[in-house]
From TrEMBL:
Residues holding beta-alanine: 61
CDD domains the UniProt entry points to: PanC
Family, per entry: Belongs to the pantothenate synthetase family.
Functional summary from the UniProt entry: Catalyzes the condensation of pantoate with beta-alanine in an ATP-dependent reaction via a pantoyl-adenylate intermediate.
Its EC number(s): 6.3.2.1
Subcellular location as annotated: Cytoplasm
Further information: The reaction proceeds by a bi uni uni bi ping pong mechanism.
Protein name as annotated: Pantothenate synthetase
Lineage, opening ranks: Bacteria, Pseudomonadati, Bacteroidota, Flavobacteriia, Flavobacteriales
Length: 282
Protein backbone atom coordinates (compact mmCIF):
# COMPACT_ATOMS: atom_id res chain seq x y z
CA UNK A 1 0.00 0.00 0.00
CA UNK A 2 1.29 3.45 -0.92
CA UNK A 3 1.25 5.95 1.96
CA UNK A 4 2.37 9.53 1.40
CA UNK A 5 3.09 12.14 4.07
CA UNK A 6 4.17 14.88 1.67
CA UNK A 7 2.03 16.51 -0.98
CA UNK A 8 5.01 16.79 -3.34
CA UNK A 9 5.49 13.00 -3.29
CA UNK A 10 1.76 12.34 -3.67
CA UNK A 11 1.58 14.75 -6.61
CA UNK A 12 4.54 13.10 -8.32
CA UNK A 13 3.02 9.64 -7.96
CA UNK A 14 -0.45 10.66 -9.14
CA UNK A 15 1.13 12.39 -12.13
CA UNK A 16 3.08 9.22 -12.98
CA UNK A 17 -0.07 7.07 -13.15
CA UNK A 18 -2.40 9.61 -14.77
CA UNK A 19 -3.54 9.84 -18.36
CA UNK A 20 -6.54 11.27 -20.22
CA UNK A 21 -8.74 8.39 -19.08
CA UNK A 22 -7.73 8.41 -15.41
CA UNK A 23 -10.37 9.35 -12.87
CA UNK A 24 -9.53 9.87 -9.21
CA UNK A 25 -12.05 9.16 -6.47
CA UNK A 26 -11.19 10.98 -3.25
CA UNK A 27 -12.37 10.38 0.31
CA UNK A 28 -11.23 13.07 2.78
CA UNK A 29 -11.32 11.89 6.42
CA UNK A 30 -9.95 12.69 9.85
CA UNK A 31 -9.15 9.03 10.45
CA UNK A 32 -10.49 6.71 13.18
CA UNK A 33 -12.11 4.93 10.27
CA UNK A 34 -15.33 2.94 10.58
CA UNK A 35 -17.60 1.01 8.22
CA UNK A 36 -19.12 4.22 6.90
CA UNK A 37 -15.73 5.48 5.73
CA UNK A 38 -14.98 2.14 4.10
CA UNK A 39 -18.28 2.29 2.20
CA UNK A 40 -17.19 5.64 0.76
CA UNK A 41 -13.94 4.04 -0.38
CA UNK A 42 -15.82 1.15 -1.97
CA UNK A 43 -17.97 3.59 -3.93
CA UNK A 44 -14.90 5.58 -4.97
CA UNK A 45 -13.24 2.41 -6.27
CA UNK A 46 -16.35 1.35 -8.16
CA UNK A 47 -16.66 4.70 -9.93
CA UNK A 48 -13.01 5.59 -10.60
CA UNK A 49 -9.70 4.12 -11.81
CA UNK A 50 -7.85 5.34 -8.73
CA UNK A 51 -8.94 5.94 -5.13
CA UNK A 52 -7.21 8.28 -2.67
CA UNK A 53 -8.05 8.70 1.03
CA UNK A 54 -6.67 11.46 3.21
CA UNK A 55 -6.25 11.00 6.95
CA UNK A 56 -5.72 14.33 8.66
CA UNK A 57 -7.14 15.73 11.90
CA UNK A 58 -7.64 19.32 10.79
CA UNK A 59 -6.97 21.78 13.64
CA UNK A 60 -8.71 24.76 12.04
CA UNK A 61 -12.18 23.22 12.16
CA UNK A 62 -12.17 22.63 15.93
CA UNK A 63 -13.51 25.48 18.05
CA UNK A 64 -12.96 23.36 21.18
CA UNK A 65 -9.26 22.65 21.94
CA UNK A 66 -10.21 19.75 24.23
CA UNK A 67 -12.17 18.10 21.43
CA UNK A 68 -9.16 18.45 19.11
CA UNK A 69 -6.81 16.98 21.72
CA UNK A 70 -9.07 13.99 22.38
CA UNK A 71 -9.98 13.26 18.77
CA UNK A 72 -8.86 9.67 18.09
CA UNK A 73 -5.71 9.24 16.01
CA UNK A 74 -5.32 5.64 14.85
CA UNK A 75 -3.32 5.71 11.62
CA UNK A 76 -1.91 2.17 11.82
CA UNK A 77 -5.33 0.66 12.50
CA UNK A 78 -6.84 2.85 9.77
CA UNK A 79 -4.36 1.55 7.20
CA UNK A 80 -5.21 -2.05 8.10
CA UNK A 81 -8.91 -1.30 7.56
CA UNK A 82 -8.20 0.35 4.21
CA UNK A 83 -6.30 -2.77 3.11
CA UNK A 84 -9.48 -4.84 3.62
CA UNK A 85 -11.13 -2.74 0.90
CA UNK A 86 -8.12 -2.74 -1.44
CA UNK A 87 -4.34 -2.51 -1.04
CA UNK A 88 -4.36 -0.36 -4.19
CA UNK A 89 -5.94 2.59 -2.38
CA UNK A 90 -3.54 5.53 -1.99
CA UNK A 91 -3.25 7.04 1.49
CA UNK A 92 -2.32 10.67 2.07
CA UNK A 93 -1.52 11.23 5.76
CA UNK A 94 0.11 14.67 5.91
CA UNK A 95 1.49 16.67 8.80
CA UNK A 96 0.00 20.02 9.76
CA UNK A 97 3.02 21.78 8.23
CA UNK A 98 2.66 19.89 4.95
CA UNK A 99 -0.92 21.17 4.63
CA UNK A 100 -0.61 24.65 6.08
CA UNK A 101 3.07 25.36 5.36
CA UNK A 102 3.63 27.15 8.67
CA UNK A 103 0.41 29.21 8.66
CA UNK A 104 -2.25 27.19 10.49
CA UNK A 105 -5.13 29.60 9.97
CA UNK A 106 -8.48 29.41 8.22
CA UNK A 107 -9.48 31.23 5.10
CA UNK A 108 -12.86 33.00 5.41
CA UNK A 109 -15.69 31.77 3.19
CA UNK A 110 -19.15 33.04 2.32
CA UNK A 111 -21.53 30.13 1.75
CA UNK A 112 -24.60 32.33 1.20
CA UNK A 113 -25.78 31.92 4.77
CA UNK A 114 -25.95 28.14 5.15
CA UNK A 115 -22.82 28.32 7.31
CA UNK A 116 -24.78 30.21 9.98
CA UNK A 117 -27.28 27.46 10.70
CA UNK A 118 -26.96 24.61 13.22
CA UNK A 119 -23.30 23.51 13.27
CA UNK A 120 -22.16 26.98 12.28
CA UNK A 121 -24.22 28.57 15.04
CA UNK A 122 -22.81 26.32 17.75
CA UNK A 123 -19.27 25.90 16.42
CA UNK A 124 -18.01 29.37 15.41
CA UNK A 125 -15.43 29.25 12.63
CA UNK A 126 -16.04 25.54 12.00
CA UNK A 127 -17.03 25.87 8.36
CA UNK A 128 -14.19 28.27 7.58
CA UNK A 129 -11.90 25.47 8.79
CA UNK A 130 -13.80 22.88 6.74
CA UNK A 131 -13.66 25.03 3.62
CA UNK A 132 -9.96 25.72 4.11
CA UNK A 133 -8.94 22.08 4.41
CA UNK A 134 -11.29 20.75 1.72
CA UNK A 135 -10.20 23.41 -0.78
CA UNK A 136 -6.54 22.69 0.05
CA UNK A 137 -6.99 18.92 -0.34
CA UNK A 138 -8.79 19.38 -3.65
CA UNK A 139 -5.89 21.50 -4.89
CA UNK A 140 -3.41 18.80 -3.83
CA UNK A 141 -5.23 15.64 -4.96
CA UNK A 142 -7.10 17.14 -7.95
CA UNK A 143 -9.85 14.49 -7.77
CA UNK A 144 -12.46 13.77 -10.40
CA UNK A 145 -15.04 12.82 -7.76
CA UNK A 146 -15.05 13.37 -3.98
CA UNK A 147 -17.19 11.36 -1.56
CA UNK A 148 -18.82 12.60 1.65
CA UNK A 149 -21.20 10.89 4.05
CA UNK A 150 -24.68 12.32 4.56
CA UNK A 151 -24.36 12.16 8.36
CA UNK A 152 -22.60 15.51 8.04
CA UNK A 153 -25.32 16.78 5.70
CA UNK A 154 -24.69 20.45 6.40
CA UNK A 155 -20.99 19.90 5.65
CA UNK A 156 -21.98 18.17 2.39
CA UNK A 157 -24.03 21.22 1.37
CA UNK A 158 -21.17 23.51 2.39
CA UNK A 159 -18.71 21.57 0.20
CA UNK A 160 -21.10 21.69 -2.76
CA UNK A 161 -21.41 25.46 -2.30
CA UNK A 162 -17.61 25.79 -2.01
CA UNK A 163 -17.06 23.91 -5.26
CA UNK A 164 -19.73 25.96 -7.05
CA UNK A 165 -18.60 29.39 -5.85
CA UNK A 166 -14.89 28.77 -6.37
CA UNK A 167 -15.38 26.85 -9.62
CA UNK A 168 -13.36 23.87 -8.40
CA UNK A 169 -13.46 21.09 -11.05
CA UNK A 170 -14.64 18.18 -8.88
CA UNK A 171 -17.93 16.31 -8.67
CA UNK A 172 -19.27 15.98 -5.10
CA UNK A 173 -21.03 12.71 -4.26
CA UNK A 174 -23.15 12.32 -1.10
CA UNK A 175 -23.36 8.78 0.29
CA UNK A 176 -25.86 7.21 2.74
CA UNK A 177 -25.33 7.09 6.50
CA UNK A 178 -24.02 3.83 7.93
CA UNK A 179 -25.52 2.89 11.27
CA UNK A 180 -24.61 0.53 14.06
CA UNK A 181 -26.99 -2.36 14.80
CA UNK A 182 -28.88 -0.23 17.33
CA UNK A 183 -29.33 2.64 14.86
CA UNK A 184 -26.60 4.92 16.20
CA UNK A 185 -24.99 6.76 13.29
CA UNK A 186 -21.41 5.57 12.82
CA UNK A 187 -18.90 8.21 13.86
CA UNK A 188 -15.25 8.32 14.84
CA UNK A 189 -16.42 9.91 18.10
CA UNK A 190 -18.34 6.73 18.97
CA UNK A 191 -14.95 5.22 19.88
CA UNK A 192 -14.84 7.53 22.89
CA UNK A 193 -18.14 6.17 24.26
CA UNK A 194 -18.24 3.43 26.86
CA UNK A 195 -20.13 0.27 25.96
CA UNK A 196 -23.06 1.44 28.10
CA UNK A 197 -23.05 4.95 26.58
CA UNK A 198 -22.95 3.46 23.09
CA UNK A 199 -26.01 1.38 23.94
CA UNK A 200 -27.88 4.33 25.46
CA UNK A 201 -26.99 6.62 22.53
CA UNK A 202 -29.35 4.59 20.35
CA UNK A 203 -32.01 6.87 21.83
CA UNK A 204 -30.84 9.66 19.50
CA UNK A 205 -31.89 7.76 16.38
CA UNK A 206 -35.06 6.45 18.01
CA UNK A 207 -36.03 10.01 18.92
CA UNK A 208 -35.54 11.44 15.44
CA UNK A 209 -37.47 8.53 13.91
CA UNK A 210 -40.40 9.38 16.20
CA UNK A 211 -39.96 13.07 15.38
CA UNK A 212 -40.18 12.25 11.69
CA UNK A 213 -43.41 10.36 12.32
CA UNK A 214 -44.88 13.24 14.33
CA UNK A 215 -43.93 15.76 11.63
CA UNK A 216 -46.51 14.07 9.42
CA UNK A 217 -49.33 15.56 11.51
CA UNK A 218 -47.71 18.25 13.68
CA UNK A 219 -45.83 21.49 13.09
CA UNK A 220 -42.05 21.75 13.31
CA UNK A 221 -42.42 23.83 16.49
CA UNK A 222 -44.58 21.17 18.16
CA UNK A 223 -42.17 18.39 17.23
CA UNK A 224 -39.21 20.44 18.47
CA UNK A 225 -40.85 21.01 21.86
CA UNK A 226 -41.53 17.27 22.16
CA UNK A 227 -37.88 16.44 21.43
CA UNK A 228 -36.67 19.03 23.94
CA UNK A 229 -38.98 17.60 26.63
CA UNK A 230 -37.82 14.07 25.83
CA UNK A 231 -34.13 14.90 26.30
CA UNK A 232 -34.80 17.03 29.37
CA UNK A 233 -35.89 13.82 31.12
CA UNK A 234 -32.57 12.09 30.35
CA UNK A 235 -29.71 12.94 32.71
CA UNK A 236 -27.04 11.31 30.55
CA UNK A 237 -27.85 13.43 27.49
CA UNK A 238 -27.55 17.15 26.79
CA UNK A 239 -29.45 18.30 23.69
CA UNK A 240 -27.52 21.06 21.92
CA UNK A 241 -29.98 21.59 19.08
CA UNK A 242 -32.83 19.96 17.19
CA UNK A 243 -33.99 21.49 13.94
CA UNK A 244 -36.26 20.60 11.05
CA UNK A 245 -34.88 22.49 8.08
CA UNK A 246 -35.26 22.97 4.35
CA UNK A 247 -32.66 20.68 2.73
CA UNK A 248 -31.72 23.28 0.13
CA UNK A 249 -31.35 26.40 2.29
CA UNK A 250 -30.94 24.74 5.72
CA UNK A 251 -33.31 27.40 7.07
CA UNK A 252 -35.66 26.19 9.83
CA UNK A 253 -39.11 25.07 8.82
CA UNK A 254 -41.62 27.65 10.07
CA UNK A 255 -44.58 26.52 8.01
CA UNK A 256 -44.66 23.36 5.92
CA UNK A 257 -44.49 23.70 2.16
CA UNK A 258 -45.36 20.60 0.15
CA UNK A 259 -42.91 21.64 -2.57
CA UNK A 260 -39.91 21.58 -0.23
CA UNK A 261 -37.78 18.72 1.07
CA UNK A 262 -37.22 18.79 4.81
CA UNK A 263 -34.62 17.14 7.00
CA UNK A 264 -34.18 16.61 10.73
CA UNK A 265 -30.87 17.66 12.30
CA UNK A 266 -29.77 16.95 15.86
CA UNK A 267 -26.68 17.39 18.04
CA UNK A 268 -26.43 15.74 21.46
CA UNK A 269 -23.73 15.51 24.10
CA UNK A 270 -23.22 12.13 25.75
CA UNK A 271 -20.82 12.66 28.66
CA UNK A 272 -19.21 15.63 26.84
CA UNK A 273 -18.88 13.62 23.60
CA UNK A 274 -20.73 15.40 20.83
CA UNK A 275 -22.79 13.30 18.42
CA UNK A 276 -24.83 14.43 15.43
CA UNK A 277 -27.44 12.74 13.28
CA UNK A 278 -29.87 13.56 10.50
CA UNK A 279 -32.69 11.99 8.50
CA UNK A 280 -34.85 13.12 5.63
CA UNK A 281 -38.52 13.54 6.53
CA UNK A 282 -39.86 13.44 2.95
Amino acid sequence: MRIFNKQSELNAFLKSISNDKTSIGFVPTMGALHRGHLSLLETALEQNNTAVISIFVNPTQFNNPEDLAKYPRTLDADVEKIKTVSPEIIVYAPTVDDIYEGKTVSQHFDYDGIENQMEGKFRPGHFDGVGTIVKRLFEIVKPTNAYFGEKDFQQLQIVKKLVSKYKIPVNIVGCPIYREANGLAMSSRNERLSAEERKEAAMIYQTILEAKKQFGTKSAAEVTKWVERTFAKQNQFELEYFQIADEATLLPCIRKNKNKNYRIFIAVFVNKIRLIDTISVN
